[in-house]
Amino acid sequence: MRSAERQEIGSSGYRSPDELPITRSGQVVRVRTGGVVGRVVGALRAHATQVQHATELARPDGAVAGWYALSNDVLAPILTVETYLAVEVG
Q1: Which of 26, 31, 48, 63 has its CA 20 to 30 A from that of 3?
Q2: Which helix (H) or strand (E) holds 37?
Q3: What is the CA radius of gyration of the chain?
Q4: pTM of the predicted model, to two decimals?
Q5: Strand-pair partners of 39
Q6: Pairwise pLDDT comparison (69 vs 6), residue with the higher score
Q7: Which Gene3D superfamilies does this one have (predicted)?
């Protein structure tokens, strides 16, 4: 992987399968979730034995696009931007 300070991966014509902008900053990758939050909530709801509740907000509230609670009764946010550390394997 090539390191870049603020490189938009889509700038060379590449787009993610959902046409979402993906921004890479160094080895940190940030993905906007706006276009897939409904599918994330649906996937969480499909795991009813592990997820007690999942909901998408009608309008994102700052960094929060929705909420879910696992079977441990802890409420957690579904974020508008997910952040990952990208590493090379091999």
Answers
A1: 63
A2: helix 37-45
A3: 15
A4: 0.64
A5: none
A6: 69
A7: LmbE-like
